Amino acid sequence: MLQQITFMKLENTQTQMRKGILEYCILQIIARGEVYASDLLHELTDAKIMVVEGTLYPLLSRLRKAGLVEYKWVESASGPPRKYYTLTQEGHSFLTNLDKTWGDLVKSTRLITNRTKKASK
Predict the structure, then answer these.
(1) Does residue 86 lie in a domain region?
(2) Number of domain units in the chain
(3) 115 phi, psi to nearest 5 deg
(4) 50 located within any domain
(5) Does residue 30 carry a pLDDT above 60?
(6) Does residue 24 register a pLDDT over 80?
(7) DSSP state string for 26-91
(8) 110, HSE (Cβ side, Cα atoms, 13 Å)
(9) 94 lies in a domain?
(10) What is the CB-side half-sphere exposure of residue 40 using CA atoms within 13 A?
(11) Distance CA 99, CA 27 (A)
């Protein structure tokens, strides 16, 4: 039972860590050029950042309402029109600031995780 509780705590913490970087990763992908939502899902899944449509679409909507991304409809020969996302100018500026924050977090985390345990007195 204790092992199951520990696993549940670990799984919850891992999920929270992934959620914390999801928006950043989505903006990074969109910054490369027009992207279709299912392509976003595939890339995130390939990178082991598990996300489902029920999480992605509300996040994309929030990013659009914040003025960070925009979309356009493109006709598809194989089905209904597709919505392709791009970053706005504000989105590019926002991402530049997030890049700085990410770099600072990685540096700080490495400082902490690479330190050796202090000897007991």
Answers:
(1) yes
(2) 1
(3) -75, 145
(4) yes
(5) yes
(6) yes
(7) HHHHHHTS-EEHHHHHHHHHHTT----HHHHHHHHHHHHHTTSEEEEEEEETTEEEEEEEEE-HHH
(8) 6
(9) yes
(10) 28
(11) 10
The answer to whether 24 and 102 have CB atoms below 8 angstroms apart is: yes
CATH of the domain at 38: 1.10.10.10
Query: Which two structure tokens, joined as six digits, stand for 55?
Result: 């999480």
Task: Flag whether 108 is in a domain.
Answer: no
Read off the pLDDT of residues 33-57 as tens digits, 9 standing for 90 and up: 999 999 999 999 999 887 888 889 9
Residue 82, C-beta contacts closer than 8 angstroms, at least 6 positions apart: 36, 73, 74, 76
Kindly report whether the global pTM for this prediction surpasses the value 0.85: no
Confidence of residue 79 (pLDDT cuts 50, 70, 90): confident
Q: What is the mean pLDDT of residues 10-33?
A: 89
The rounded distance, in Å, linking the Cα atoms of 28 and 5 is 35
pLDDT confidence of residue 26 = 97
Domain that holds residue 38: 19-103
